Amino acid sequence: MLSTADDAGALISPRSSDARESAPGSRGAHGELVIVRHGETEWTVTGQYPGATELPLTANSRRQVVSLHRILRGPLRERSPVVVSSPRLRVVETARLALPDAHAVIDPLLSEFDCGSDEGLTPTEVARRRPGWGIWNDRCPDGESVEEVGARGGHFLETSVTHVEVPVVVVSHGHFSRILAARALGLDGDQGRLFASATASVSVVGDHHGERCIGLSNASADLGDDLIG
Fold it and tell me: What domain count does the chain have?
């Protein structure tokens, strides 16, 4: 079952061209954040920047995504979470398969990095066009900068995660998931480069003895049996 963040009463503001990151901070009650990256698509296999392009999950990925349910049992500990999804179909399908009993709220704030005119290209192809350019340092032509994506992530954390008493499961994309993890730890968005995010994987950020920390990182569906066993 799906609804939109507007239906759920979440505050969504349009992206500003001069958006700045406002760090949620590293202390206090921030809520438990469970980050799920969507499953494999043809473009994740080839390494193309997907952005807003609608891409279906591969058949292999659907099997992996279903097995995420077993990994999620650990951090959720039989609690009923709030589940929020990017509007992209590959993400919506991941949420449905991984959490079949959940009511997923659709929130555009969780959309992938807007790659602008680089959408559909691989990093190698971009490097040929603009030597020295990097997504973690430079704005995407006709798209977003990492600072703007970080501001989006920070706004989502402030409005939809902070002080929520149950786990919040975010189902989203590769670059956005990495940036969101950094922001949840009180870091700037460009520090998302430090966090891996495989397709069909789970990461957890929460409070431990009053400090914000990583509770689980990049646990992929392929490792599900090992983690459960």
Answer: 1
Whether 38 sits among the annotated catalytic residues: the reply is: yes
pTM of the model: 0.84
CA distance 95 to 169: 9
Please list the residues that pair with 37 across neighbouring strands. Answer: 172, 201
Q: Would residue 3 count as lying in a domain? A: no
Catalytic residue among 21, 32, 40, 112: 112
Tokens 């990093």 map to which residue? 123
Helix (H, G, I), strand (E, B) or coil at 132: coil
The residue count for the chain: 229
Q: How far is CA 229 from CA 70, 97, 148, 218, in A?
A: 11, 22, 41, 17
Q: Is residue 201 part of a domain?
A: yes
Residue among 21, 32, 38, 148 flagged as catalytic = 38
> Per-residue pLDDT for 114 more than 50?
yes
Tell me the torsion sign for CA atoms 65, 67, 73, 74.
negative
4 DSSP assignment: E
Closest CA to 63 of 228, 227, 229, 225: 225
76 assigned to some structural domain: yes
Q: Which domain holds residue 215?
A: 27-228
CATH code: domain of residue 175: 3.40.50.1240
- Strand order of the β-sheet with 2-4 is 2-4, 104-106, 82-85, 168-172, 33-37, 201-208, 211-220
Q: Which pLDDT tens digit goes with each residue over 137-178?
A: 999 999 999 999 999 999 999 999 998 999 999 999 999 999
Query: CA angle, corner 48, sides to 47 and 53, nearest 5?
Result: 135
DSSP state of 116: G
